[in-house]
Structure formats: structure tokens, C-alpha cells
Amino acid sequence: MTPVRHSVSAHQVIVKFIHMRNNVFQAPGRTPAGEVSMSIAEFRLSAADLAPYGRGLQRPECVWIDRDGVWTSDARGGVCRVHGDREPQVLGTGIADPNGFSRRPDGRFVVAGLSDGRIHEIEPDGRTRVLLESIDGVPLGTVNYACADGPGRIWASVMTRSLPWMSAMQSRKADGYIIRIDAENASAQIVADGLDLTNEVKVSPDGRYLYAVETLGSRVVRFAIRPDGSLGAKETVGPDSLGPGALPDGITFDPAGNIWVTMISHNAVHVIDRDGAAHVVYSDANPAAVQAMARAVERRTGTLENLLACNEVAGPLRLPTSLAFGGPDGPDGLHRLGRPHASHHVSGAGGTVADSFNHELVNDASRTASRADRAAGRRPTIAPARPRSRLQGRARCGPSVKCKAPAAVHRR
Q1: Per-residue pLDDT tens for 311-362?
Q2: In angstroms, rounded to a whole number, what is the distance separating the alpha carbons of residues 181 and 148?
Q3: pLDDT band, very low/low/confident/very high, at 13 (cuts 50, 70, 90)
Q4: Alpha carbons 114 and 108: distance in angstroms, whole number
Q5: CA-to-CA distance for 127 and 318, rounded, in angstroms?
Q6: pLDDT (tens digit, 9 = 90+) per residue, 129-152?
Q7: Mean pLDDT taken over the chain
Q8: Given Cys at both, which of 133, 272, 325, 363 links 118, Cβ 3.0 to 4.6 Å?
Q9: pLDDT per position as a tens digit, 356-411
Q10: pLDDT tens digits, residue range 210-226?
Q11: How many Å apart are CA 192 and CA 372, to the nearest integer?
């Protein structure tokens, strides 16, 4: 989700999973001798495994990692590259509450403006322009995330047709939707509708599915991407509900098809495995606040105060909104991932958290191949993450290897 966008605090940082309990998770054929086997269901993090990263950030709602480094959205009107030892420099101008963003292969960023209801593009030199602000003359509403899908397509999520979005907490009408923007013919159209506070949307690594978070629906869903760019029927991925008071926000994939989810109301990170089972990797929930949130969601009486109460915990991860994989070894889409980063910020008026995964860097080649397969009538060689399929996953851990992110291995 993307809560409170008001005042800014010096406590806004990215949280880096630094130790990962000294476990390394790798794919078949990459297991050093003497390592201990661990399933993705057993993997856990504690507060001791987390550390802040970056300084001087303002509302880092979304985090993105590529060869140029770690990037986050920034309330000063654009995105910024995050450094561990110095202040960031903002790229872009004029975006009101930059929210979810991603990067095209040519280096341009596409960014959702949460408070201005627009989708923006930032050039590598910082020039910023509006890509879309209405469809058929109707304002978009509260835009949450812009997902670049190769050089010519963007998928964008709209939380609600209302602006600001908080009114959706008190309405039983699910009016979130997803837009497809095609650069070739400069067209934009609504391809999915009736979603319950649409949050992050991501294309599966093989390009066959569009995954989306329904925050007030407390679930992750997906749509098959048809050859003409339309979407198939909505399918629930994993549990029908991730739990009472659970508000999922950001998602990303690991190479084995597990889905990592930031749970803003629980101050948590969950994983949905290929069998559709949900596992808690880290959680620091305020039980009373979560119960109050559950009642508010059920009755549709939610307020900003309900969300802020969830922030009243002692741990380092508060109101997380985004997750990305990367690290000093670089992402490897087939065998391993580096350190995941979750962004959070805590401000006097509220807090947020976000998600991002560099599909272009890690999986663009496999996705392009999959599209070619589909065009030729062949079955893609890399299978997508499924709502429910068999998991025979084993992840590897070794005491001498430092900080690799989990990637379960699956057998069909």
C-alpha cells in the first residue's frame, strides 16, 4: 500500500537484510559440499538481521536495484540513488509524492505520482514529463505503481478513482484498476477493474502473467497476459486472505517463483511459495493495532490513525512498503539473489513502505524469449509462478557464505 504522504522525518531509511543468518540459498548444481539444507518454509529473519541503509531520504516508498545502484522514490519530486555514506541526489522534478516506479532498458524511469494522479517519465538527465493523467477525459485517480515492461509497454495500478486514496478505506466499492500503456501507438486503456485498493503490479519473470496486490482484499492476484495485451481472468495467488488485518503492499519474485510480500500493517515480510502456502519470514506486529485494523477493514471504517498505530513497535522494520533483491555480487536470475532491501519511513504524520524488482536486468532475456515462443506457438521454456502448484523446494545454507537471499528449488 502507500499510506501517509504528509510530513517528513529524519528516520526515513531503507532497511537492509544484512546477515540473513549467514545462510545461502542456491539452485541445483550450485551447492558447495558440507552445506546444510533448508526449505523456504523454514527461512526466518530476526531484528538482528536488519540494518538501516541510506541517509537523508524523504518518503522512500519504493526501492529499485540495478547495475547503477539502489534507487528509491523521494518526496522532493523524483527518484534518488541511495548511498550508505552520503546524502542522495534527486533525479527528476515536479512529481507530487513519487510512489511506485521502475526503469526502462534505456535508463528512463516511469513513476506514479500518488498525490497528482499522474504517470510520469524521468529521463537519465532528470528531465521530467507527464505520460498520462486521464483516460477519455476522466482523471486517473490515485496512481500507485508504474511497471515498465520492456521498451514499449507500461502497466500501472490505480488504487481507487478517488483522490486522495484514504476515502477507499471507508467505502465498500472496490474501484481500483490496472492500465496498460502502449508506447508504439500512444494508447492507454483499462485492462482490469474492480480491484480492492490496487497496489504494486509486477510482470512475472517469464512475461506470461501480471501480478497485483489487492491491499484491502488482503491478497495477491494475477492475470494471464494475452498476445494482444489484454488480460485473462483474475486468479488468487496463495491464500484467499493473508489474514485478518493483513495489508499487503509490495511484491517481488525470487528465481524459483516464490513471491515475497511486504505486509505494512504487520511490519512484516512474507513469502508465498509455489504451492500457494504463505510463510512469515519476519514480523513485528502490534497485536492490538492489527486487531483494530481488521475490524476497520471489515466494517470499512478505516482511518489514518489505524495505520499509524501499527507503527508503534520496537523493531527496525516499520510500515514496510517495498522489497528488492540485489547486492555486491549482482542479481542472478537463475541461481541466486543478493541482499533484499525493504524500504520504510516513519514520519510525524504517518509512514509507508514499498517494493521493487529489476525484471529488465535479471529476466529481460528470458522474457523476450518467452514472447518469441508464444508468437511462434511454442510453450515458453521457463514456467511462471503459479497460484497453486507442487513445491519440492530445498534451499541451501552454509556458515561460511555471507548474505544471499533465499531462492527455493522446485521440482514438478
Answers
A1: 999 999 999 999 988 765 444 332 233 345 555 443 222 222 233 322 222 2
A2: 10
A3: low
A4: 19
A5: 33
A6: 999 999 999 999 999 999 999 888
A7: 77
A8: 133
A9: 322 222 233 333 334 444 444 433 322 333 343 322 232 222 222 222 333 222 22
A10: 999 999 999 999 999 99
A11: 25
Other C-beta atoms closer than 10 Å to the C-beta of 268 total 23
Cis peptide before 164 (omega within 30 of 0): yes
**C-alpha angle with apex 163: 123 to 115, nearest 5 degrees?**
30
Residue 404: HSE in the Cβ half-sphere, 13 Å Cα cutoff: 27
